[in-house]
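hi support,

uploading two proteins for the ticket. first:
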Amino acid sequence: MQLSILAEKTFSSIGQGDENLEISSAAGLEIAEQGAITFLANPKYTPQIRETRASAIFLNEKEKIERKDIAVLRAKDPYLAYTRALRLFHSEPEIVAFVHPSAVIHKTAKVAENVEINANVVIGKNCVIGIDVKIYPNVTIYDGVKIGANSVIHSGVSVRENCEIGKHCIIHNNSTIGSDGFGYAKDEEKRWLKIPQTGNVVIENDVEIGANTAIDRASVGETRIKSGAKIDNLVQIGHSCTIEEDALVCAQTGLAGSSVIGKRVILAGQVGIAGHLKVGDDVVITAKSATSHDVENGKIISGIPAFENRDWLRSIAAFRRLGEIVRAIRDLEKRLIKIESNDNSE
């Protein structure tokens, strides 16, 4: 691909170099070879520009480099431009329309013509599979499931009864959509009585769900993952939760039942959200934090229980000095006792 075409497709502009230069791949600064384009997003990696073998580089609109033998594409966000380049050079393979002979598809299921259904897939009663859907081997789709156009379901996934998956979704290996919510009531003899889980899970468009993630169905109503949300591996989403548009939920995060996660929220790794909470839009909860209270829009919080990130950083700084502070207090106590004893002796 010529540099000029790459610039157009990545919404960048040529700052240096031949517009006819051929670019065939994209890679990081350290591993890029001739013919590749790389990027600089973090200034701490600037020294690596001297050694990179890349033919071109994405830079922001102000960054300057000494090398004249490397083409420069200017972008407001070099990492975003680089991501777009990666997508150009590594596009998804097209659907190969076929149904493997070992697939079991109920006669009442409605399956579009241009779909790829691989070995040992099971599709239940009254399912609807949209056009250009790709289903990898050993996927189980229970009765009444709907899957929208252009979605990809990887091997080992289970989609439970009556759940809905939108268009352009990706569900990675061994995830379960619509497993029973964790709901029990104590009977008169203090034994746990299972609450029927009669709801479903609705996944809207452009959602990606990582491997080994579980999203529970609601006891009544629905658990809903809204458009553009991205969910990492090993995430637990409890019954009746709502995750709003473009939220990002990182690995090993757990949401208790009926939580509401706002738009563009970032829940970092191993975050815990207690039940029936509202996390406002644009909130960031840092790794290994947990909250047991609602969080206002735009807050950045940390810790267990989580509170304002800046205050948490100050607290951590003080905690690191706790031994030193204790020693200082003990020294002051000794000096005070000595002073008081001297005063009493007089």
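and the second one:
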Amino acid sequence: MRVLHVFRSPVGGLFRHVNDLARSQQALGHEVGILCDSSTGGEAAAKTLESLGKTCSLGVHRRPIPTLPGWGDVAGTRATVQLAKSINADVIHGHGAKGGVFARLAARKLKRPGVYTPHGGALHYDWLKPPGAAFLAAERALRLKGTGLVFVCEFERQLYDRKIGLGGNPSNVVYNGLWPEEFAPRQLAADASDLLFVGEMRQLKGVDVLLQAVAALPAATRPSLTLVGEGRDKAAFETLARDLALGTAARFAGRKNMAEAITLGRTLVLPSRHESFPYVVLEAVGAQVPVIASAVGGIGEILPPDCLVPAGDIQALAAKLQGLATAGQAAQALAASLQAKARERFSVATMAAAVTAFYGSIS
């Protein structure tokens, strides 16, 4: 098959998903092309896309794609139609809200199979709030007959059905996957802290909850914490850490790739208020790292209940962190067991094969 993947910004988990999927589909003998935004992602995205362009036989194509809905979407849809036609795409697969708009409209125009993977997107919004109502109404209007839906977790499929409706369209849940080399146990850095956070520095990720939970523990036994990432709320979190008198117990390490970040702490903590199916949890499990996370999104499809805490509950998180001091071998045994299960359930090869088979089922 000749497949065109369409999405907006080449950053984050969505970009990793498309990157992995495109490379694997090429390896399976299909021809793949990419269309994404030209104004975001910076140097890191440019390097990844350059490498991807050497793999994808139908090329990597970039153009300005605005975040918010507007007249630019008309030009974006037209460009998607022209590109899909020029490369004779058999399937047009849109990722995220904006990629979903372009891909579905182009597929209808060209009378070719269209596939949409939300990756959270508009699903984070609420019908009762004005911006959310507009985004969700647009999603419902684009619920075109014949469009296949691929979700990265069961939570996301159920949320989509509840907020927008599957509309009788074929759908499938295909989990994100890891490469074989990502299932190697990590080697801790010499200065590794007790706890590790990796993610965007945003209120959505619950960094404030984590800092307050650490501060709630006795100073004499307080675990050390390394926070990896950048974002709009980082300065506020640094101020909060000072106000809580955490001192050297909380270290902000800036942005790092996951291979380095995962070596900086013994237990990964993800206290998010909202998530879909976060790669950071999957990558930690693959590296045999103990994880504590909020019981939100599809995280419970990766981790057992003993690893989960209610989102936003400072005291529950503090209690779970305090229990780490005596977890010892039990925590490591659980991490090894979760890694073994992940090898069977969460591989890039399985993901690519399942998505590509789904294309065939709707063609």
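thanks. also noticed: The radius of gyration is 21 Å.
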